[in-house]
Structure formats: C-alpha cells, structure tokens
Amino acid sequence: xxxxxxxxxxxxxxxxxxxxxxxxxxxxxxxxxxxxxxxxxxxxxxxxxxxxxxxxxxxxxxxxxxxxxxxxxxxxxxxxxxxxxxxxxxxxxxxxxxxxxxxxxxxxxxxxxxxxxxxxxxxxxxxxxxxxxxxxxxxxxxxxxxxxxxxxxxxxxxxxxxxxxxxxxxxxxxxxxxxxxxxxxxxxxxxxxxxxxxxxxxxxxxxxxxxxxxxxxxxxxxxxxxxxxxxxxxxxxxxxxxxxxxxxxxxxxxxxxxxxxxxxxxxxxxxxxxxxxxxxxxxxxxxxxxxxxxxxxxxxxxxxxxxxxxxxxxxxxxxxxxxxxxxxxxxxxxxxxxxxxxxxxxxxxxxxxxxxxxxx
Length: 360
Known about the structure:
This protein has eleven helices and twelve strands. The chain has helices at 10-60, 70-78, 86-114, 146-153, 156-159, 163-168, 186-198, 214-228, 245-254, 306-314, 325-333; strands at 133-140, 171-179, 201-208, 231-238, 241-242, 261-264, 266-267, 296-297, 301-305, 339-342, 348-351, 356-359. It has a seven-stranded mixed beta sheet, sandwiched between helices. A hairpin with a 4-residue loop joins strand 11 and strand 12 (356-359). Helix 1 crosses helix 2 (70-78), helix 1 (10-60) crosses helix 3 and helix 8 crosses helix 10 (306-314). It starts with 9 loop residues before the first helix and ends with a strand.
C-alpha cells in the first residue's frame, strides 16, 4: 500500500512566506512602539524628578555661577546617583524654602492690592503742596471742544479763582483728553499748544481720543488721576455740564469720611438691542432676558472715592468696557463693597440747542 506524501504547491509556499514576513513586520512594529513608550515613560519620570531639584535650583542657586540648561538637567538625571550628596540635599531644601517664600510674597502682594496699596508709577506732578486733596475733577473734552473749554474757564472754574487757589481749597481741575489716532498731527499739536498757555490739561498719552473709546477713557482717567494726586474723591464731568461748583464741593465734604462712595444721579433703563439706534449696546445679550441695565451713576457726573478709583487702576487690564462709560463704571462697582449714593443735585436738566446740562 503506497503512502501519499503531502505536496506543497508554489502558491502555497508564497502564501506562507508572506505570512512569515507580515508576522515579522508586526513584531518589529510592536517592538518599536514599545521602545517609544518606554522612552516616553522614562523621560516623564526623569523630568518629574529632575526639574524640581535641578532646573529650579539652577535658576535661583546656580552652580559655579552658571545656569543649567534642560539638556544639562537631563544628562544629570540619567546619571543621577541613588544617594544624594549633602550638597545636593541642601540645594533641594534651599529651593523648597525659596519656593515657599515666593508663594508667601505673592499672597502678600494680592492682599496689598485688595486693600488699595500700589506702587506709584507716575511722578507726583499734580499737587505741588503734597497735601491731601478733597477732589480731582476731570472735565472730559475733545479736540473740537475749545469753545466749551473757554466757556468753562469763564464760568465755574473762574468763580473759584485761578487753578492755584483752587488747589489751596483742596480741588484740582483738569481738562481730560487723549491723543489723536494719528500721533503728532495738528490735533495733538493744537492741544499741546493750548496746554502750554493754560496749563489745565490732563493728557492721557496712552489713550486714543475717539467717541467709541469713551469707556476706556474712564479707565485711563481714574487710573492716572489716582496715581498723580492723593485725593478723597475723583470726579468725572462732561464738558457740556454747567456745575454748581460750591454745591459740588459741599456735597464732597459731607461725604469725605465715607469709604467706598459711588456717587451720582443713579438710574437704570432698557438696553438698546437694535443696531444703528442711539445708545445701542453690542453686548446687550449679557444683560439678561429682561434687557435692563443695572443701577449706575448717569454719565455726565460720576464720582468715585479713592479706594474705588484705586481698584479701577489696579484691575484696569481685566475690567470689561461696554459701549457707554457710565455703564462700564457701574459694572465695575457691582462686585465691590461700594456705597451707592443717589444725589438728585447731580441729575441734569438739559437746555439749549447744545443740550447744556445744568446741575441744581
């Protein structure tokens, strides 16, 4: 009886060869991926051990006067001895102590800012006497407002005599204006020339004077004024306001001992949601389903006590500016321990074609 031997055809041999090659490639690929995973895990472990003890140390306590780079750190990490020397241990302890002191200093700085302390970044050029003032009054003006400025100079500003005598009464008054979008053009030169003659401007060099930038102007005014002058109050007034100056001074004196005072003609109202209409608010959707503004001091006159003005200065970079400056200032006050003072003497009655606002 004949035994039949298995016969392998050429096609079967080629198929087996391909299977062996595929298996070999898969094994190589898996081995390569495993190697990468090992390198990744080892690298993470190295960095987690090396960086806190060597990079941070080399930044603040450099060895031999030289800072160690990351490559040096990694080379140290791979050669890291199992037992740290006394020198290494002292360096690690020093880093931990320095890190603790940095955290404590940051906490102290945050506390100081919350209490209104800040480093004076501008020269104290406003108050020549150096005494504590009652108020700094900033009259908002624009490039085309010279006629209004002259009217004010001939009315309530002159009734209290010249600016130096005003300061003796504890009042600083300045016309507040920014710079032209085209720096150094005729608009800027005209303001500089007028200021040389009158010396009654507060020029905000970092602010661009434009109607759509009024909300940001409030940040610059309160922030700059609180750094330049030490006063109990900082007052924003529009240049179309006819102020009862003596009445305003009396109001401020009566509130002098009240911290956190936010004073004005308080109001609220509907938010204008239709683009193109007067007082349109692009961020109308942020004011809730009722589309109503929160209570705030009306735009012509806004008064902040010193600590509130300091808050605006310290946090100006993160404060949201809405389309209108009075809404913006009101939104900044909402999260603070501000005392809202609604004074009807600061409510305007408009008259004339130019809508001059008269305070009773």
